[in-house]
Amino acid sequence: MTTGEGFARVLNRFTAAVEAGDGAALASLFTEDGVYEDGFYGASSGRTEIASMLETKFWGHAEGFRWRMLEPVCDGRHGYARYVFSYRSKLPGVVGESVVFEGMSQFTFEGDQIRRYREVFETGVAMAQLRFPAERIAKSLERRAAALREREGI
User: pTM score > 0.70 for this model?
Assistant: First the structure.
């Protein structure tokens, strides 16, 4: 991956594919066995799963996506960007509710393609905007904390 303008082009194509609900376009940015680790939906492996995740989960549960990548940096192998992400819910009981949150993206490249995409954001902030009950938010955050501790051996 080239740095600077090359990374900016990838970010533009990445966010445009998500905003358009174009699973094939998003998946084409990844290696054949690339992984997209979403903060809500978990890991999708391979182009078919990545395309399906975008089209059935993202667009099945929401619409009107807007994704702004800010302050990108890339060393050729790893790229990072702060982001602001928003959408309108299609979930029962909260249809049309607007959600916005900030996060951080990490891209690992193999050549010019994404090998792994990961993100970090406060899922509780998004869940609160969808008026999820406090108990549900707490359970979700407890599961995420346990998974992190297990992954890190803590």
Answer: yes
SS3 readout for 114-148: EEEEEEEECHHHHHHHCCCCHHHHHHHHHHHHHHH
| Burial annotation 82-96 (CB, 10 A radius, 16+ → b, else e) | ebebbbebeeeeeee
Q: What is the mean pLDDT of each run of 10 residues along the chain (154 residues)?
A: 81 98 98 95 96 97 97 95 97 95 96 95 91 92 88 90
Residue closest to 105 by CA, chosen among 44, 38, 45, 55: 38
With 0-12 / 13-18 / 19 or more C-beta atoms within 10 angstroms meaning exposed / middle / buried, residue 13 is middle
